[in-house]
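Components:
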Amino acid sequence: MLAFILRRLLQSVAVLLTVGLVAFSLFRYVGDPINAMVGQDTPAQEREALREKLGLNDPPPVQFVRFIGNAVQGKFGLSYRTSEPVTSMIVERLPATLELSFCAALFALLVGVPMGVYTGLYPNHWSSRLFQAVSLIGISLPTFLIGILLILVFAVWLHWLPSFGRGETVKIGWWTTNFLTVKGLEALILPSITLGLFQLTLLMRLVRSEMLEVMRTDYIKFARARGLSNRAINFGHALKNTLVPVITVTGLQLGALIAFAIVTETVFAWPGVGQLFIQSVQFSDIPVMAAYLMLIGLLFVLINLTVDLLYFAVDPRLRAQGTARAAGH
Amino acid sequence: MAAATNNPPLLEVRNLRVEFPTRRGTLLAVDDVSFDIAPGEVLGVVGESGAGKSLTGNAIIGLLEPPGRIAGGEIRLEGRRIDNLPYEEMRKIRGARIGAIFQDPLTSLNPLYSVGRQLVETIQTHLSLPASAARRRAVDLLKEVGIPGAELRIDHYPHQFSGGMRQRVVIALALCAGPRLIVADEPTTALDVSIQAQIIALLKRLCREHKTAVMLVTHDMGVIAETADRVAVMYAGRVAEIGPVRDVVKHAQHPYTKGLMGSIPSLGERHDRLTQIDGAMPRLTEIPKGCAFNPRCTVHGRRCMVERPELMSAGASRAACWRHDAGGVGQPITKETVDA
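Structure:
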């Protein structure tokens, strides 16, 4: 198991280095950073001096190593747009995105999994067919449209919920949270639904097909033959066997939620890193873009590592591989 | 042996019909099957694939897979009718009064739960025992089915057991609540031959010790001959012959049974070739008129082509054959020979 974790960690490092290379390439090939930093009438010597000072004349591998070295320490330089340190800009906005993604994931899990179990157990019931039909809508409507529709209904027509922003937030250290005020929680509802709806339908369909599969297995039939209650069979034996693929997809989707919160954040004017990224793209603010790339890469790697570890918790066949050979034949 | 026949039967199956509605009409997969199992008796049910043996077993434990359903007849356990019970009622009988063993021990156990957990949950479903007592019982059961180091092995997961050991665990699971009847559906088919013998011996010993009756579904005539008290031979959804195992094996009355016996290799005698039954069992949609076996039968007469034989006394057993006592091929059929 330790060897497995070490191997995974090495792979993670390789992935992050690759992402780093892409982020680094942004600096070199998407426009000239000097142009973004100096005025139009700056003389060539000054530009050259600045280039030398910033180390841009060094060979690319040297620059890359320097970039990675800084990135590891969390240094991504100054934003071209605001001249603030990139790291602090991201740290300031990260809680908004993480809280939104967390709520969206929670919503998708708490609604999607039970719906999947239900439709998997009673595939021919009319309500299952209804869920299936509705989930098709959820999967095919684009996120921004769902967001706009929700705003129209709940903010414009019904005036129940706010249509933009985070509402009131409370600062705990460097973290700003929505969870401690009613207004903050209200502001979370619509964006969370918008962001989580696609994942919800995806999870529901995944759990449903996995349940259908598992219910046909011999061990479920044998569990029935042992006279176990439906509850024990459905939620103990069947659901647990659907978990491995569900965990995989949930993990990947959690990464996707954070990364693709961009659209939802734009629709709801949510002050998260996604919105920051969109603004940075408009201004070719490369340091911010590069840092964002690295951050998303890091999150994906961390989530995947967690997912791999969760497999061990769920499936004893992985956990006990070492001892199995000793004890078996 | 057949001595058990004086007792009131433990299981009575009367005119059982199992059908499958399909788009092209309803298929009758088990057609008018009747038999009894006495307490402590081992009834072997033998036949080719698709003869309806497993469906009969599944109907008894109330686990026919939809769209299959019981279309007629009665199943009684200890005098109580069980074929029309609501799901919850039947669930309390399954595992408690009727245990089941399936073909493939590799897939019968949930891979994610330890063997002990699966035993304990079964025990606690049917017997009101506290966790510690249930666990003790689980260890005892594992010991009983011959799992070495049961105290340690109870916390192991199914993948840590070999196939034969897993089938032992499955047997322990079937025995959890002390059932009166075990429906064993091809319990040794998926195992190595050497392991098969062990499992059969174990099943035999346990059932004798616990006075549990067994309905042993298999297509292995050797297993039946070794284990069963009585045997029912099924063909195309019907019982072709039923009787004490010795009589059926030595003096088969139905030509199909004779064919089955002829196809078993024996070590003692020398054959140039084993006899085989030509042809294949008819599809459920194409069961011929008269006796379902007539296209493959070497001794069939005119009556076999038009009228379906019911089970009739034939020697020590009962056979569904107009020609059960016919001496040779082509003998003219008269009312006398048939009714004899």
